[in-house]
């Protein structure tokens, strides 16, 4: 019987994916609820030809250099800013991710945060829990309207587009900023491409959906927040570091913007005593935009299938650096 390939899985993922890997490989599984430390990750990866990783695992060039036997890093996320893709490509390691399966669920959370922050839901819940609800009040917890408001979407990929589709049901006017302008998408989704400055000035809601990279790091800072309306709401379901956290704290505290709804933060996790947690006009949830039962099953299945496909010499459904496969197929003459 042929020996099964050694594979490392850096956290317990839903059985839908874990069972596929368990059956087909010699799986080493990190069972702690917290991520492995860098040293523990090294131990886990010893002799592994494949790794199923999470966004909390830093896969950089030195780590890849210590594990030259690795052929595939399959990330359990659509984002892959935790992986040095250039280094992986250079070393012939395939990097896979989980696009599409989480698009609707993630856009749904952006919309949820938009509504929760605009309508002061967490303040209302606290108000009731704290026993402050004594009567109906004409000026109690006044928020901002969503129906008919202007939504600015920064980053018009899959999730930004899905949010646009949802927002049309709320009769929102849609502005988009993206470095790539897709004229067919403008017609299909009823959006208008504008500059980032115009989007920030004109939107009642600004929702961030760009990938984190050198160009987008702290793209929303003090200057950008100052351009937004004092009645506006900022939503981030992308990555925490696309926003300058200190600038956001000041903008929320000084009333430069009305509120924020954050699925992601910088740092992450956010300590309980952080200003963003205590500010009443900031609604923070712990990076759960894709966290539904069905979507996490789909992510687990896709991440497992990607991993196994590369190990079997097949083309995975989602690969970030297809060059690696083209190169290895060329080298093997297939
Ligand atoms: C991702 O997929 O990149 C999310 O942040 C987690 O689902």
Distinct ligands: (2R)-2,3-dihydroxypropanoic acid
What portion of residues is helical?
Answer: 25-40%
**CATH topology assignment of the largest domain:** Rossmann fold
* Proportion in β-strands: 5-15%
The CATH architecture of the largest domain can be given as 3-Layer(aba) Sandwich
Describe the global form: globular
Query: How many DSSP helices?
Result: 14
SSE topology string = EHEHEHEHEHHEHEHEHEHEHEHEHH
Description:
Helices cover 38% and strands 14% of the residues. It has helices at residues 15-24, 38-45, 61-66, 85-90, 103-118, 121-129, 158-168, 183-189, 196-202, 222-227, 245-253, 275-278, 293-311, 323-331; strands at residues 6-9, 26-29, 50-53, 72-75, 94-96, 150-154, 173-177, 191-193, 205-208, 233-236, 259-262, 282-284. It has two domains: 6-101 and 293-332, 3-Layer(aba) Sandwich (Rossmann fold); 103-284, 3-Layer(aba) Sandwich (Rossmann fold). With 334 residues, it is of the alpha/beta class. The protein is globular and about 75 Å long. The strands form two sheets. A seven-stranded parallel sheet has the order 8-7-6-9-10-11-12, with helices on both faces. It contains 14 helices and twelve strands. The mean pLDDT is 97.
